[in-house]
Design brief:
The chain contains 19 helices and 6 strands. By secondary structure, it is of the alpha/beta class. It has 3 domains: 186 residues, Nucleotidyltransferase, domain 5; 91 residues, DNA polymerase, domain 1 (Orthogonal Bundle); 86 residues, HRDC domain (DNA polymerase, domain 1, Orthogonal Bundle), CATH 1.10.150.80. Strands 1-4-3-2-5-6 form a 6-stranded mixed beta sheet, with helices on both faces. Helix 9 crosses helix 13. Pfam families: DNA_pol_A_exo1 (PF01612), DNA_pol_A_exoN (PF18305), HRDC (PF00570).
């Protein structure tokens, strides 16, 4: 099977001016049915995960490649009235919806073809695998991790981007038929609506702090936390000023390791695994940051935050509360069996974290005193009604 390496109607021109956006919006308004939408971002290169290219396709009007950078307010003013409230088809919606929301774009209804593939029981749910299996078209892929903020964009990258939506409408139709045939379309609709609602209030990037750095919980001493905080604040200011991904300034693993080892000399700092020791300026610069933190007033050093008391570790749970853990394990095993029977991943039937919370609350936490209280707690943990319908009898039998 020869791969489809370019859109059948040719590579669309990149639209990048306010006049282009207005014309595209008018054309899209004349189209029929849902819109297929995708984005290309550059989070591995730029500070945030904003979209540097938005691909939109609609029947009767074709594909549009839109470059919002430099004219984002004008982009939103033109495209939001044309696209908001329509039926959207996206592959892996949670990865694209935030950057689209930052542009003021929100779907009316949503169909996520990747999640549809998971619910349908497919082993491979990437776009290329699904289009090949269901539409007998092999898409040429391979540019997803590129720096999409660079300009101009090479023609083969643009072809790749356009192909992301070339067959998405047909794929959505096919997946809806498959899910309907399997009796899962209503379940999928609830999942899609949950994703849509989750992203409906997003207007910009989520704020983070130094305590959100992966691995920060492994640091316990105040001086380690003080160094981690100073490294993070310095890294953040550089990344924002230069519009660089934070990992290109100082990777998280390196930040945590520097804070853990507290190097006192440039030589010690250069020995930290992953540190850019070949750059002398980096050694002296980050060495000064570490020194600044360590010579600051110890009274200002942060303290380790203790997580709120809640679930014990699995080992502590099984050792100290064996009956409770046995009931949790019984519920988990039965849900695993249901997963195999329905050909739906266990985590899509009920999130493992939700199962642990509910099992603990019902057997030891004393938050659930009756099976009748199970549905409300499941809803409080964002379980959808179809998930509750499937798992309530299992939880009732195993936990009570």
């Amino acid at each position: 099977m020869a791969p489809l390496i370019s859109p059948r109607d040719g590579i669309p021109r990149v639209l990048s001016t306010p006049a282009d956006f207005t014309a595209a919006a008018a054309a899209l308004a004349d189209g029929q049915g849902p819109v297929a939408i995708d984005t290309e971002r550059a989070s591995g290169f730029r500070y945030d995960d904003r979209a540097f290219l938005v691909q939109v396709r609609r029947r009767d009007v074709g594909t549009f490649l839109l470059d919002p950078e430099g004219h984002r307010p004008e982009f939103t003013a033109a495209l939001a009235p044309a696209l908001n409230g329509l039926d959207w088809i996206i592959h892996a919606a949670p990865s694209d919806l935030p950057s689209l929301a930052w542009l003021g774009l929100y779907p009316g209804t949503l169909f996520d073809t990747e999640l549809a593939g998971r619910l349908a029981g497919f082993d491979h749910v990437n776009l290329a695998a699904m289009t090949e299996m269901l539409l007998d078209v092999h898409l040429a892929k391979g540019h997803g991790a590129e720096d999409w903020s660079q300009r101009p964009l090479p023609a083969d990258w643009l072809a790749y981007a356009a192909l992301d939506v070339e067959l998405l409408l047909e794929l959505g139709d096919t997946m809806a038929e498959i899910l309907d045939h399997q009796g899962k379309l209503e379940w999928a609709s609830q999942e899609f609506e949950h994703i849509r609602r989750t992203h409906a209030t997003i207007t910009g990037p989520t704020e983070t702090t130094w305590r959100d750095v992966k691995g920060i919980s492994t640091l316990g001493r105040p001086e380690q936390l003080a160094v981690a905080r100073e490294l993070w604040m310095t890294r953040e200011s550089i990344a924002v000023a230069e519009d660089l991904a934070v990992g290109r300034v100082l990777p998280n693993k390196v930040l945590i390791e520097v804070a853990r080892t507290l190097p006192r000399t440039g030589r010690d700092l250069a020995r930290v695994k992953g540190f850019p020791a070949r750059r002398r300026s980096a050694v002296s610069f980050w060495g000064e940051v570490v020194e600044r933190a360590l010579t600051s007033n110890p009274r200002t050093w942060p303290k380790r935050e203790r997580p709120p008391r809640g679930l014990p570790s699995r080992q502590a749970w099984s050792n100290e509360y064996p009956d409770s853990y046995a009931r949790y394990s019984a519920a988990r095993d039965t849900i695993d069996e249901l997963s195999a029977e329905l050909e739906i991943p266990t985590e899509n039937i009920l999130r493992p974290a939700t199962l642990r919370e509910v099992a603990w609350a019902a057997t030891n936490g004393r938050e659930i005193r009756s099976p009748l209280e199970l549905p409300d707690m499941l809803r409080a943990h964002d379980a959808r009604e179809w998930q509750i319908d499937l798992t309530y009898p299992i939880l009732q039998d195993a936990l009570f």
